[in-house]
């Protein structure tokens, strides 16, 4: 598989979200290589998106989200988990896509060792915190260049996907009904939670 170029990722997050479905995130650590095919993502724009980290402007925390495209934006949430995002748009314009869920395609045994709580293989990266755990993505990867072959985290183009579903983003406190979550048919897609309750996925 070929690695994405920066130009391919420098697009609006709503377009980037569709580009990323079926793409593969690959990480290299001293333990080995793990690769995961993305099956669920969420788009976040900038100062016109109340749910975005950049809604109130540029800060040290969200600096990476302002570009250039093709970098990884990693943040800490709930005091215990890390979430990973692919930065899009032109340099100086905020926007990114949250990686919500994936299927482990390589390094399954290593992913299982990192995710001992997973009962089935499709649960290894079923959710943004599980995804970063299985791939061993942490704060040291914030700003990593996904288009650099020497990067410890790389983004590879995958095979074309079938039908893409859309629906509301998960767990946001603002712009809750905006259908900027995108997913394809896969058992690894996470449960939709609105107000703390899990409900059945609905295709848009």
Describe what is shown at a glance.
13% of the residues lie in helices and 29% in strands. It has helices at 6-9, 13-20, 108-114, 128-135, and strands at 24-29, 32-44, 72-77, 81-87, 96-106, 153-156, 165-167, 181-183, 192-194, 197-199.
Quick tags:
single chain, 204 residues, alpha+beta, two-stranded antiparallel sheet, 4 helices, 29% strand, globular
Biggest sheet descriptor: 8 strands, antiparallel
Indicate the percent of residues in helices.
10-25%
Give the H and E element order.
HHEEEEEHHEEEEE
* Secondary structure tally: strands: 10
Count of alpha/pi helices: 4
Shape: globular
Q: How would you classify the helix and strand content by structural class?
A: alpha+beta
Radius of gyration from CA coordinates: 15 Å
Show unreliable segments. Answer: 195-204
Mean pLDDT: 91
Classify the beta-strand content into a percent band.
Answer: 25-35%
Q: Distance N terminus to C terminus?
A: 30 Å
